[in-house]
Amino acid sequence: MEELQFGLAPAQPLPALKQSDERLANNLNDQRPSRREFMRLSGLAVGATALALPATGSAAGLPAQARDPDAVLARLLEGNKRFVSGQLAHLGRRPEDFAPLAEGQAPVAIIVGCADSRVAPELVFDQGVGDLFVVRVAGNVVTGAGPFIKGSIEFAVAELGARLIVVLGHEACGAVKAAVAHIDANDVLPGAIRDLVEVIRPAAASVRDKPGDKLENAIKANVAMGVERLKGLDPILAGLVMKGEVKVVGAIYKLRTGVVEVFV
């Protein structure tokens, strides 16, 4: 029997695998759910939220009212006040702090933030281990970000029970700044940077003639577009947002002061 790299042996000889490719593909097609079935299963996933994974950590066992989106938002903003004042409730992280989370998680909020090294949501909101489900990407992009960003957010709602989503932009965002400069210069950026900037470009273009600081306006527009996209994201988020069970807000983190301002 042939051996694969690292000394692992295949379950059957490689020629046999090739011969079964067509049969395997047919079986997979037979088992693939229809679009209607997928919609039904998605609805079941949302309904069975807290049952999917064991809920542990500091957010586990919270009463229903403590998971209310407005209550969670108030909790985050209180944490930000502690951060700004330097009176942190969560000072350090040790291995033993993570031990209770080994069997599952129950974050109270999803933060869609920028990958910028100066923006760390757990610190900015002074939250404990396991309290936040953080999705970070340059420019905190949502629209045009693809299934990996959107799927991560949907997973945290449908499987982990999070009911608040915060799209968190920040002052002096380099990705948005590049989009603004790209529009002004009408140039071509190298590599995948061009693709990233093109995703942000519509937000920057939408406020090009607006009075005020051009970069600040573009940063807010980019956050607002992300919020609107998530509010209408089918099949999981849109219905829950309409029912008031999930809340999506947009905020800006001020680098110089540490303050988080919710504006949409």
Q: Note the total helix count.
A: 11
Distance between the termini: 62 Å
CATH H level, superfamily name? Carbonic anhydrase
SSE topology string = HHHHHEHEHEHHHHEE
Task: Provide a descriptive summary of the structure in words.
The protein is of the alpha/beta class and 264 residues long. The protein has one domain: Carbonic anhydrase (Beta-carbonic Anhydrase, Chain A, 3-Layer(aba) Sandwich). The protein contains eleven helices and five strands; from the N terminus they run H-H-H-H-H-E-H-E-H-E-H-H-H-H-E-E. The chain has a five-stranded mixed sheet, with helices on both faces. Strand 1, helix 6 and strand 2 form a beta-alpha-beta unit. Helix 8 crosses helix 9 and helix 9 crosses helix 10. The N terminus is likely disordered.
Write the layout of secondary structure elements.
Blueprint: H1 14-19, H2 21-31, H3 35-47, H4 69-85, H5 95-98, E1 109-113, H6 121-124, E2 132-136, H7 147-158, E3 164-170, H8 174-185, H9 193-206, H10 214-231, H11 237-242, E4 247-253, E5 260-262
Parallel strand pairs: 1-2, 1-3, 3-4
Antiparallel strand pairs: 4-5
